[in-house]
Amino acid sequence: MKFKKAAIRNFRLLRNVDITFSTDEKTHLTIIRAANDSGKTTTLTALQWGLYGDRALPNKGRDFRLAPLDWDRSKNSVVDIQVIIEFEHYKQIPLGAGKYEHETIVYRLIRSAVETLHSDIDYSRIPSTVSLFELTDQGDLPITKPEVILDDIMPAELREVFFTDGDRALSFIEAESSLSLKRKRVKGAIRSLLGLDIIESALDHAKAATRVINEKLARHSKDSNLATIATELSDKLKSLDRLNTAYTDCHDKSETNDGQLAEIEININNILVRGNEEDLKNERDKNIRLIQYLSQQREDLDVKKSDLLFKQSIAYGLTNNTVDIAMQKLNSLKSKGTIPSSTISVLQERMKTSSCFCGESIDEHTTEGLKRHNHLKDVIQNSQSADEKNKVLGELFYDMRSVDAARATFSDNWREEYLRLIKSGETLKSQTLTAEKTRRDIDLKLGKLKGTNHAELKSLKSTLKQAGRELDEKKGSLGHRIKLLERDLKDLEARREKAGKSEKLKNSKMSELDAARDIVSILEETLQNIQHEELDKVSEKMNQYFLEMICSDPEQGAIIRKAHLTRDYDILVYGPKGQKLNPDVDINGASRRALTLSFILALTTVSGYESPNVIDTPLGMTTDEVKRSILLKSIAYSNQLVLFLTRSEIYLCEDILDDAGVVQTMTNSAHFPEKLASKPPTEYAEVLVCSCNHRQYCSICSRIGDDKRKELSYRNEV
Amino acid sequence: MAVNRKRIMTMIVDKVQEMPERCNGYNDELMEAIGDIIELEQDKKLTGANSKQPVTDRCMKLGQYLFDSNNKSTLDN
After folding, report:
1. What per-residue string of b and e applies to A81-105 under the rule 16 or more CB within 10 Å gives b?
2. Does A511 touch chain B (CB under 8 A)?
3. Could you report the per-residue pLDDT of B16-40, keeping only the tens digit for each?
4. Closest CA to A599 of A554, A564, A630
5. Is A444 touching B (CB cutoff 8 A)?
6. pTM (2 d.p.)
7. What part of A 252-311 touches B (C-beta under 8 Å)?
């Protein structure tokens, strides 16, 4: 299967995005260059939604709005969301006897959904629908059961093999996944891609056929001896069925038990590294008490600071110079007689009488007296404002005299006291920060311990070990009984063969039994082949790719010597002297990414199934040689590689990407003006696609500083 | 489907070729029968169709071929 093109409409930031994929065998690499927050992961999600529907969305689509967040509801509250994918499929048409003819079919898939926006945050969505068309010379032929074809071509259990999010989907090895979950994922991918489930089912049904035929032989044979043997065989086969079911059940339980035991071992080791949960909890309580104490200390200190600020000594200390200047001025005014002032009151008193200070009449009833009376009135009014000031100055003078006298008696040690309080405050703040950091560290450790403590884990480990021993015993006993039964069955089959020899030409059931047993035998051998040899091939390829990607040369004393896929579906990494390394802890982010990619590519290589590998941010956390190496090997070992790369991932790999079949650039218009150099031709926050390759920029994708980067050149849009 | 059928069938062909022929043309018929069974199982996986009875029928058909061929061969001799 290969992607040809995709059109995405109104899917979050992707309002109108068209992508072309390279299908060329030699240049099968497609690059989508995009900065962070420019639609890389959204495109990956949109493609998966197109193929797998809502189950491929985060949280299976619950609370995951598809419509653009800045959609203008006032214009239209109903949003049509659509993903159209055109892909070609290299179909193998069985001709019989293991022969096949091949045909390339081109399909167009249309996944649609409608979202109604009730408010800016409230929306509803009708479940998506999918249509599939086969594109032929005669036109587009609709496919009646698109899900069946899609599941055939891109099975859901292989979604993480086809679509890899470099940052998140390290699910085959990542720390968050439990051991049994990791195994399950690896096993599921291998079973599906190598066809184990098909062979197993065929084998079960072929075995059932031998039983049915044997029963018929038992019922219809005219030879009583043969009928007796067949009946006995039939009964023993039924017993074998029961024993096999019990054995499988026991085996599954044992596997789960082993997985739990391994997880507990990891947790116990973690405890040894990080500390016991009980101790950590005590430490945390102690730490909380310390933080509370420090907080109380800081509050007390604040009160002390407040008290200090309200003390007169600090006021005197702070205003000393100002008070000196003020006293000088006030004393000067006093000596001039400006303050205190009583002019107005004296005149007002005089106005109440009929004669002035000089003895002249100020009687209002006489003409001359009225003139003088009015003159004095004007003098009082004119002096009124100046006298108000003098009155205030007078009051100030007397107040300041008491302050001046009092300040001489206070000491100037408030500064030392204030500095001491500030220093204590800083010490308490620093102690609080340290204590809070310690608490966060403890919380982190506690979180990783997931509610377990050493004693509980040891007890659980002991219980599980005991359960494991019991299961092993049961398995051993069942296995022994199965072996005995199988031996009996072999004897009976030999006896049936001998007894039925004369019947061979008379009774077709004997031939049918031979045929069914041949089929069982071939299928058993094929199953074993896949379970062992093919799995080992995946392991070998994974190891080869991984060591090549991380440039690890064992002869040069590299730390990572080997990656291995066990027959229990565990991915293991080994260091010098066969030392087992934990991929979660002991290898760096770049190597973990390389390991995941190696597993995925090895699996697709060994399976021989042509499929695309769509990988988001594959080169994050990698530098220099490893980055180039991962890129080169991913190209070399894939059929169709689609990489979403940031500019920093592209940096120093430009020459490798020159061989890409298609390169496009995605730009988020919302990055203008902070990051984009030109105003985008849209009023919405949306992803714009231009045909700039990894060495170009244009008016759409140009980022601030691009014009100064030597490795980039401006592309004129035609 | 995602499984490379050709690869699986190549493995099966190798195994069949190692088997002694029970009658003339038997191995080819056996190969075809297993191919059909694999197809039945793939259909079952995709469509959920029951494959148990059809697989039994296919085994019996191969047996019938063996029975007829052996009888024919005996008569010819």
Report:
1. bbbbbbbbbbebebeebbebeeeee
2. yes
3. 999 999 999 999 999 999 989 988 9
4. A564
5. no
6. 0.66
7. none
